[in-house]
Amino acid sequence: MPRLGFLYKFVSSNGTHATGFLCRYTSSTEDNCVDGLDNDCNGLTDAQDPACRGRIPPVSQRCVVNGVCEAPRCAATPRS
Length: 80
Prior knowledge:
Elements: E1 5-13, E2 18-25
Antiparallel strand pairs: 1-2
């Protein structure tokens, strides 16, 4: 699989309509486990992807110093 580009996966058709999945892949394996994206287009995002097991930091480590989160669904760390 090429390293960058788009991937289209056919899902189904019923004679008048077709359903598919379009994914923009950035890597052949999940290399960013906190961005909420399916970077390798295998249908799994971050915590769901086996390639990310053991590589996802605790929520508090995913937030930047000013409390703005770097990753989706991240709870802001309170300031002291």
